[in-house]
Amino acid sequence: MMSFASSWPGTVVVFLIVLTVLVFVHELGHYLVARRNGVRIEVFSIGFGPEIFGWFDRAGTRWKLSAIPLGGYVKMYGDADASSMPSGEIKMMTEDEKAVSFHHKRLGQRIAVVAAGPIANFLFAIVLLAGLFMTVGQQFTPPEVGQIEPNSAAERGGLKPGDTILKIDGGAVESFADIQREVYGNPGVAMQLVIRRDGAEQTLSVTPQMTEMTDRFGNTYRVGLLGIRRSGVDYIQRGPVSAVSRAVGEIWNLSVGTLKASWQMIIGQRSTDELGGPLRIAQMSGEVAQGGIAALLYFMAVLSVNLGLINLFPIPVLDGGHLLFYVAEALRGKPLGQRAQEYGFRVGLALVLSLMVLVTWNDLSHLGIVAFFRGLIS
Fold first, then answer.
1. pTM of the prediction?
2. Catalytic center residues
């Protein structure tokens, strides 16, 4: 698998498998909760565009694989299209038709159906991580300082090899990863570190040095660094209860980190060059797969969390946009007008398309394709 994943065909295959699984999980969440609430499902599609192949099940749902494998949708009875906009025929439905129409369900039922997709992604990530923690083990690096780089922020702050970092700005530290997470997001900000040295606790004030880094995928970003190295890495196998608990904690940290990074991009503290699209994900899928099935499953869990979070953003055409409309409906006591919803979906579609253009440009730039064509015409 490792040698196959390193080739371009292998990278594409791995990417399509990863994306198909995550999309299927997301749409299955919508499907199961919709069926549970008596909604008739007309189409369950992996991908968009022309159908490649498909079949009807006993309930009359068309299950299909479509030509453009960058997403999917569940079309419910009463939907005008894949974006779940209500069709113009919902006002003329019979009572029997209304009983199986998504748009005639109670507000709480519609909220449950829409929220089920992102929730399914989070649950899937928990299952993956918990399974890894029970079998392969959870990577654990003690929060102990192994080495200190000369002229670093750590050296200036008084840290020494052998120190164990117990708290950062009052928050408990359990692993070296906790240190990295806190320090990376606070470049140039003074931090209070509680350490244990020779059996005694003491407090140091250390200011992470702002550093511009470029990762192996070509992303350039600014982070805070202390200039310390870890002392070692262990893998700890967890029991079922502990594995699930640790998986939930890991997903919480991933979610908070992603939302924090997104907000920093919105207010201009981080560059949008860090955003990647399908091409970058494909490249990363191939590279991660070379590390083995465990690394690929962890990567899938991270992507599943990101997919769930992105779909919860309050942008019309995404699940979060639908939920925003439902919040407005709950406050008003009646749904938003058809025209208001249509304008909202147009704005949302424009935002999503603009984001797709941006991330595709970033992908092409990081892969060197933009520079290649510039060289041809210069």
1. 0.73
2. 27
